[in-house]
Structures are given as C-alpha cells and as structure tokens.
Amino acid sequence: MNTAVAINLYGDRIAYYAEDVPDGSNSPLWLNGKPIRLEGRTYYLPCGGSIRLIGRNYIVSGPLGEKVIIDNRGSANRGFVNLTVNYPSCNIQQVSGLLGNANRNRQDEFQVNQINQTTNLTGFIGMNSPEFASLSQDVEQRYQNEIIKDFAEIHRVTQERSLFDYRPGLTTSFYTDRSFPRIIRTFNSIPNTNRDAARNRCQQMGVSEAEMNGCIFDAYYLDLNPNPIPTPPPATEGVILNKLRHPMVNSNTIAPSKFPENEAQPLPTKPIDSTSKPSEYEPVTKPSTEPVKPAINFKVPEPKAPNVSKPISEPKPIKTPPASPAPKSPPASVPSKGKG
C-alpha cells in the first residue's frame, strides 16, 4: 500500500504523506518543502499546473495534460493512498517503471530479465492480463519473486533521486526493507468461494473489469473496501466562463488567516511581469484588519538648515504658520491630483 507519493511537475515538487508527515503535523500535502492547505480551492503552482481538492481526492494537473489523482484512503489505524495517473499520448514513449506498459511494450521494463530463465514468461505481466489468469500458483509465486528482486531494486528510490521530505536524521535507508515481503501472496491461492464473494463485492461497488483482479486481491488479503477509479469533475464544470478582455495571471486567493506563517503562502495577486519568475516574489504578508492611519507629526519642528533633503519614507511634519488676520475672501481652490 502506498503511504506517500512525490511528484516533480516542471520544477515544482509536490508530495503527499498519508503517514510519517515530515514535521509531525496534520498537514499531509507539501509543496517545495513546505506544508500547504487547499481548503477546497484550486492552488496554482508556480511553474504551471494546479492542485485541486474534491472530496478526499487531490488532483494534480500539469500544463500539458498530465494528471495524477491522489485518493486518500486513510483509516483509523493506517493511512494509505491510491494513485491514478493520466499521461498525454504525445510523450507516451518516455514512460518507465510502473508506467512502462503505457507504451504498449512490456519487454523494456527490466534491465536484467531473469523471467525467461525460470518461467518461460516474457516481460512484465499485469494482474489483469490474459497470461496472468492462466498462471499456476507455483509459476505466479516465482514470477513475483523475480519482480521483487529485479524490478524493485532497479526502480528503488535513492537518496540522490528522492523527491520526499524527511524528518531530521532520516534518509531513504530508514525506509528501505529488502526483506519485504516476507511472504509472497498469490492471486491463484485464493479459494474459489472467497474469490467469487470478493468479485461480487467489487462489482457491486462499481469496480471495472480492468481493475477486478486487483480488487479481489485487496478484498481477500487486506479486507479493503472496493474503490473504483475516481472520476472527479472537470475544473470548469458548473462554472460560467466569461470572455477575458485583458491578460490575467492565475493567483492563489486563499485567506491568509488560515495559514500559519511557517506554512506555504499563496502567490501574490498583483500582475507578474512575463520576464520574471513567480518564485522570485516574497511570500504575501498577512494584511492588517485595522485602517491605516496617516503618520503625521503635529509638533512644531526645530529650525533646520535650508535645502536639506529627507528620506522619502519619513513623513513630512506640518508647519504651524504664524498668526495672521483672517483673509477677507477664501483662496481659489486648486484641483487635486487624484485619479483621472
């Protein structure tokens, strides 16, 4: 079960921790090394893309159509997430690892392919493929053993490549357990009666045939409630889109009062110059609720030498004029230099 996921999206590092939050807080979502909360809103990422929260699903979307749905399945005694990855077909040849079969070539997932030497099987076989359904219990167990030894070690996250945040003193070696799994569970060892009962349970919950064997496996061995692939609505569903009459920059308008200063701050709402990077702006400071009072010094200043300039930031004192007779007629009014 996945207890954390980290994503590098065009330079932005997004991480979700269902367990072992790096700072021990209850903020599981992190952006570029700092916790962040969405409060049901869309958060625009500095390097493009966005994060949306719909129900218990976090939808991380890239500017070219990439999408990762993080389905929070935490319970009272354990936390884990399900992941759904949508990838644009224009870059489908660049995928590897667990996404490798998306290029329709299952032969390129192993650098050291020992499967042929032990089982007569070739390449990576998914749990819902026709070949998998015909495996005997012994062959399936040997096949899984090869995946554990070769596939897992090739794609294991190293400290140099890790995108996760860690508590002080911890590294990837703390979470590396090469003895896992100590017992290999197989799909073929599930009794037929239990398999049929799990299948009915998965079908009633709307799980498709493409995910059926995995659902049966989880229902029998882990007693997990069936969970179909989430289908969150598009970001524009139910939204009236008005014509933009001038360029606008996506900005985060989350109320700063909901964010402690040690958490990720929303981006500034002022327009950003096209030549600058959003990350160069300082975090937005918390606005004051009190009205701004003019800083005016009503004391009579001491005599000073003429033509001595003062810093612009210092307020100019008001001079008290000497007493004089009241004018016979009011002076002519001067137009103010306000907005045109």
Helix share, percent: 10-25%
Report the order of strands and helices. EEEEEEEEEHHHHHH
Query: Overall 3D geometry?
Result: globular
Strand order, largest beta sheet: 5-6-7-8-9
Give the uncertain stretches in residue-range form: 112-116, 256-301, 308-313, 330-340
Rg over CA atoms:
31 Å
Supply the helix-strand structural class: alpha+beta
Share in β-strands? 5-15%
Mean pLDDT: 74
Largest sheet: 5 strands, antiparallel
Distance from N terminus to C terminus (CA atoms, Å) equals 63 Å
Description:
- This protein has 340 residues and is of the alpha+beta class.
- The chain has a domain at 1-86.
- 16% of the residues lie in helices and 12% in strands.
- The chain has helices at 115-119, 130-133, 137-154, 172-175, 192-204, 212-221; strands at residues 4-9, 12-17, 29-31, 34-35, 43-44, 50-54, 57-61, 67-72, 81-86.
- Helix 5 packs across helix 6 (212-221).
